[in-house]
Amino acid sequence: MTQRINYIDRMKGFAILMVVLAHVILFSFDMSDSLIFKFCASFEMPLFMFVSGFVAFIPGEIGGAALTKLRHRFISYVCPAFAVAYILALYKFLILDVLDKSLIDTLIGGLWYLKALAIFVCLQVIIMKSRKLLLELLVIVIAECLFLIGWKMNPFLHQLFCLEHCFFFYPFFMFGYYFRKYKLVDALKSRNWLFSLSVIGFICLLNSNFEVHALTFLSERIVRPVFAILAITYLFASREEQNSKLEQWFNNIGKKTLDIYIYHGTFILGTFSIFNFKFVKYNELMKANPISYLLLALLITLFLVYATIAIGNLVRKSQILGKIIYGK
Predict the structure, then answer these.
(1) What angle do CA 116, 120, 122 make, to 5 degrees?
(2) Mean pLDDT, to the nearest integer, of 50-67?
(3) pLDDT mean across residues, the chain
(4) Sign of the alpha-carbon torsion through 28, 156, 88, 298
(5) Are 9 and 251 in contact (CB under 8 A)?
(6) Contacts of the segment 198-203: beta carbons below 8 A, 24+ positions apart
(7) Cα–Cα distance for residue pair 201/79, rounded to 1 Å
(8) pLDDT for the residue 70
């Protein structure tokens, strides 16, 4: 049985909470311009991809056991990516009576994060076989070029394989992969100055705007998320031996990230009328006091977290549903 790393489970728990909170503010509140959303969106998916890459690393040369593990991972990503999307599309059609482009998008798009991970697993097989860092970096560069070409040249392939997301987040996945491979967590923990620099850099870039588009892209897509990842990794890794109530809670949530991710969208998007809180956007009192709508968003987030965990536990009790949705 694979030994779990406490601080990684805690980071996964923190990351999935930021993902759900961002989705609540974006889709339920329709407040993409709020500072809280900008804060969450500035690092939540890069952090999630970093942690995914970290746990994806398999030590040693590729062999039968490693290939079996990668095959199981691929199936566990592909099955929920499409199964849950099809169930959501069926719900939209039969219950909500939706018959428009959004229904087709749901069928084709699926759950992009899991589809991206399935693609990254396939690339991991090639990378593990290459054995040399330069060849691995060449594979990464070629993959990034193919993601970019597919995204810009073929809209159907772009939507089917989520190529835009693959292009932007594959570097963070591999960042986490190499962070574990080369044991960089210990190096990070011994360099407090890097933690300080990351915190200051992230704060400075959080709401900054540059006249040059290239600088804005570099800041928002690369530098700022890297600062956040380094700071958060330092914080959680340096407290590996600590076990506060909050850290225990993050740990427990981190072990259920798959269920939280695949089902929370069903609540926010599928049962949209229930979680439609757009009145918050037009309430001057709440807009003037971000703490008020943050508290409401946190309450909804906590409800979604526990509801989705309960759904996941229920689904796993059925062998048929478990096979369809989780591939096992």
Answers:
(1) 120
(2) 87
(3) 88
(4) negative
(5) yes
(6) 198/226, 198/227, 198/228, 198/230, 198/231, 198/234, 199/227, 199/231, 201/227, 202/42, 202/43, 202/227, 202/228, 202/231
(7) 39
(8) 92
Please state whether 183 falls in left (phi above 0), alpha (psi between -120 and 50) or beta: left
Length of the chain: 328
* Cα–chain center distance at 62: 26
* Strand, helix or coil for residue 99: coil
How far apart, in whole angstroms, are the C-alpha atoms of residue 49 and residue 97? 35
Q: Are the CB atoms for 205 and 224 separated by under 8 Å? A: yes
Please, what is the Cα angle at 199 between 182 and 172, to 5 degrees?
40
The C-alpha angle 167, 152, 176, rounded to 5 degrees, equals 0
CA distance 156 to 223: 30
- Is the per-residue pLDDT at 1 higher than 50? no
For residue 306, what are its two tokens? Answer: 């526990």
Q: Is the pLDDT of residue 275 over 90?
A: no
The single residue listed with the structure tokens 């407290």 is: 239
Alpha-carbon distance 300 to 261, whole Å?
A: 15
pLDDT in tens, 218-259: 999 999 999 999 999 999 999 998 889 999 999 999 999 999
Reduce the secondary structure of 153-167 to three states and give it as a string. HCHHHHHHHCHHHHH
In 3D, which of 270, 314, 277 has the Cα closest to residue 292?
277
Q: What is the DSSP letter of 269?
A: I
List all residues 6 or more positions away from 304 whose beta carbon is below 8 Å from its beta carbon: 20, 24, 260, 264, 267, 268
pLDDT band per the 50, 70, 90 thresholds, residue 83: confident
Query: Is the separation of the CB atoms in 106 and 88 below 8 Å?
Result: yes
Task: pLDDT band for 267, please (50, 70, 90 cuts).
Answer: confident
pLDDT-derived band at 84, boundaries 50, 70, 90:
confident
Place of tokens 């591939």: 327
Sign of the dihedral defined by the CA atoms of residues 278, 105, 148, 112, in that order: positive
CA–CA distance, 247 with 241 (Å, rounded to integer):
10
Q: Distance of CA 144 to CAs 165, 168, 210, Å?
A: 11, 9, 25
- Please tell me the distance from the alpha carbon of residue 280 to that of residue 292, in angstroms, as a whole number: 10
